[in-house]
Structure formats: structure tokens, C-alpha cells
Write a structure and sequence with these properties.
mainly alpha, 0% strand, disordered N terminus
Length: 194
Amino acid sequence: MQSLGSGSGLGAFTSGLGQVAQGVTAYRAGMANAQIADQNAHIALVDGAQAQASSNARYRAAIGEQLATQGGSGFQMGTGSMLDAINQSRINQTFAAMQISQQAQNRSLAYGNEASAARASATGKLIGGIINGTSAFLGRKMDYANANAGAGYGDPNDASGAITATAMGTGDALDRQIGMGMGNLWGTAGAIDL
């Protein structure tokens, strides 16, 4: 008769719980990374708006200096070739502001994409942890049922696909034990604040 040892149920439970805990930890880390990326996206837009305002102020100051120079020379301010220079400065100001805004939006979009990827990865790791935890329980159940079948309990060729050893009732007890363990695992996973 094969033996799985007296701690096999506890081992399966702790292994499964460990897998779920790893998934939850990875999920939380991923969500924290996503939150940081979201904050960076917001900061990129704010920095862009501040850089745009600073650029506009520099151009306005340059235009003011151009006008003051023209007026100091005894010419009518804002006329002739000086008007062309002022208009060109305004055009340059508009293009500079648009470029700063576009760069800020691109940085923000990149951070937003980073946040989305972190969320997707976190969710995948959580699901993987739950699946691996469930697999640990089911793997132990298969080991237990196969050990019982090897000892002459139950029919290993049962067409129903059941893995319980019904001849002596051990399968029913095993199903209850695994069911309670799975319930505890899912209850523990549900109790963790996601």
C-alpha cells in the first residue's frame, strides 16, 4: 500500500495557499506600479503645461523687448519690418507651445500604456496564482486517489472519470477534505484585500 503521509492534506493546503499568496503579492505590486505610472502620466501633462506657459512668457518678453527697441529708436512701434519680426516671433511661439504640448501628451500616453500593461500583468499573475493553488490541491487529490487505487480500493478503470475510492468510502471523505480545503483557500483569497 502506498502512503502519502499524514501531512499530505496540510501540505497541499499550504502549497496551494502559498501559490495564491504569491499571486496576490504580484497583483498588489503590479497595481502599485500601475498607480505610479498613472501619477507619472498626470505629472507629464502638468509639467508640459508649465513648460508651455514658461515658453509663452519668454516669447512675450522677447516681443516686448522688440517693441521697446523699435520705440526707443524713434520708430512707430509694431510697424514695418519690425511688425514682420513680431509676427514671426508669435508664429514661433505658437509652434513651440504646440511642440511642448505634443511631447507632454506623448509622455503621458507612454505612462498610460505602462499602467495598462502593469494592470494586465498583475491580473494575470493573480489568476495564475489561483490556478496554481487549485492545481496543488487537485494534484494531491490525484496522488491520494491513485495510492488508494493501487492498494485495491476503487476501480481505476471507472468510466465516470471519478477519482474517488468508493469501495471503502475513502473517496467521499477525500472529496469532503479537498472540498473543505478548497473552500478555505478561496475564502482566504477572498479575504485578502485586493
